[in-house]
Structure formats: structure tokens, C-alpha cells
Amino acid sequence: MKIPPQGTFSSGRYKDPHKLKAKIDSLIAAGVGQGSMEGYEPWLKIGSFASQGASYVVPSMKCPRSHHFLSKSEYHFYLLQEFAADVLEIREQFPLINYGRTFQIAVEKGFKPSFYRNTTIPRVYTTDFMLTKVNAVGERYLSAVSIKSRKDHAKLAGTKRGLKRTIELAVIEKTYWDEIGVQWDTVFAEDLPVIRIKNIQTLKSHAQIKASLCSDRLINGILRFLHDIGLSAANEMTLKALVRSVSKYIYMNYVDAFELFMYMAWHKYVVVNINDYLIRVTKPLEIVSVRGELLSSTLSGAA
């Protein structure tokens, strides 16, 4: 059996139900699954389960901590949120911390409550993501999201209770969040935009670069170059040819110019189409818009 790292909650480590309940209550009292930004610790982490498929521990650009994802679809959804301008914070494996209330909701609706195996201790449900978002007028709000799979639903539909139970659990989760005024949605993994995700993954690898490469002088040089030649001309070049022209204009070697250009695309100083085509150096990069004003201070994100 895979041994969970210290600090990771795993119900399988506790054979005594009294010790299990004491552990759950102590984690809640310690603030696990609560807090925000670097002060947030997910309820479940890599190693919380004895056996699992693809899993990821990923550093974030939105806050100084790493995120724990228990599936590829969770990781892909995270990438979309990491790049989204209206998402301020991403909290994964977010617990429905009032586990007494989830038990009550199940009873009230005539559903079988969920317990930890071989105990009568109500299970602490988790929502895959709790997002802090901001709307067009600057108001913050919370959005809870569960990631599901249509393929899994199809398999469950062929079992006696599988899909019915899945629906019951979703109703409990939605009811819980509705009661405290949190928007809750289900996103299916099959609906996630593959090209956008791959392009975000490419750009994210350049989200932090050496501070010496992202000076105001160099960034302003690229902005001036793009304004001077115009987007039509820039979009006719392959990415490789465009960066070579940029590198000559700002007197920088090609490799460093490429790093800086992609850095600027991640931080949206150069907005590119990442929805329709994979980013390739041998293909044109469709630039949608370029920041109009020049910089007066260094951009964030320098390593």
C-alpha cells in the first residue's frame, strides 16, 4: 500500500473510528480546507488514496503555493483557470467542511448518507474546485466546480445503482453550496477545449523568466516593433521568423527573444489566438491585439 506523506489526510490510515473522527475534527480545527491563497491547504492531496491514476503537483502563478490534482481532467481544468483573467484564486479539493450538514441533507432528501468505510462517521465531501472570480464591475464571488466524465456516467448507467447514486451525491453537493450562496456547476472533461489547454500549457512554461530578460526597455521594444509593423504583417510571418525580426530590433539573441515574447503572451501584453491552432514556431502566430501603452515599471512574474 502506498504510504501517504505526512500531513496528507487518508481515511484508510485509521482503523479505529474514534481516532478517525478525532483526526477529521483536528484537521478542521487546524484550518485545513479553509483559508485562502498560500494559507490554503487542500483537504485531499497526492497520496490521500492507496491507488490512483494520473496525478499532479503544480506550482501556481496566481498564488505562491503548489496545487494538488488527482486526475488529468482536474489538471486541464486548472490550466484554463490559471490563464483566465477573471479568476483570482484557485482552491482545489475544497471540503464541504460542515459534514454534519451534508449528512442532514442526505437524510432530508431520502438519500443514503455517505460514511467512511466500516464506520458510522459521515464522509467529508470535497468539491474539485472553489474559484474566486471577479465580474465586469469588479465584484468578487465564489464558484464551486465539480469535474465529471461522460464516459464514467455511461459506465455507471449500466449498473443497478451507480448513476442514481452519482446523481444523489451531486444533489447533496449542490444543495450544500446553494444554502450558503455559492454558485455550483458541473463541467464534463470531454467538453474541455483541448487546443486551448495545450497552448496554455506551452505559454505557462514561459510565465516566469530571468529578471534580466523582462526589463521595461526590452518589453517596450517588442511593443514598439509590433505597433510599427502592424498586426497584419506580423500575422503573415511564422512565429520563428517573427521572433527573429524582434530579436534584431531589440538587439537580443533569438533564444532570449523567444522566451520574452512567450512571457509577454502569457501575461497578455500580446494577446494571441490560442483557441484554434496549436502554437508552432513553423506556423504563424495569430496576434489578436497588442498592449497600446508602454511600460513604466517592471512586469510581475520575473524569476
Care to describe what's here?
The protein has helices at residues 17-29, 72-83, 99-108, 150-157, 162-179, 194-204, 216-229, 231-236, 239-249, 254-266; strands at residues 56-59, 66-69, 87-95, 126-134, 140-148, 183-188, 270-272, 287-290. Helices cover 38% and strands 16% of the residues. It is elongated. It has two domains: 11-191, 3-Layer(aba) Sandwich (Trna Endonuclease, Chain: A, domain 1), CATH 3.40.1350.10; 195-290. The protein has ten helices and eight strands. The protein is α+β, with helices and mostly antiparallel strands and 303 residues long. The strands form three sheets. It has a four-stranded mixed β-sheet, sandwiched between helices. Strands 1-2 form a two-stranded antiparallel sheet.
Question: Could you give a short account of the major beta sheet?
Answer: 4 strands, mixed
Order of helices and strands: HEEHEHEEHHEHHHHHEE
Uncertain segments of ≥5 residues (pLDDT<50)? Answer: 1-6, 297-303
Report the C-alpha radius of gyration, rounded.
23 Å
Q: How many domain units? A: 2
Discrete helix count: 10
- Gap between N and C termini: 39 Å
Q: Give the class-level CATH name of the largest domain.
A: Alpha Beta
Provide the structure class: alpha+beta
Major sheet strand order: 3-4-5-6
Helix content: 25-40%
CATH hierarchy: architecture of the largest domain: 3-Layer(aba) Sandwich
CATH topology-level name of the largest domain:
Trna Endonuclease, Chain: A, domain 1
Features:
about 300 residues; Trna Endonuclease, Chain: A, domain 1; disordered N terminus; disordered C terminus
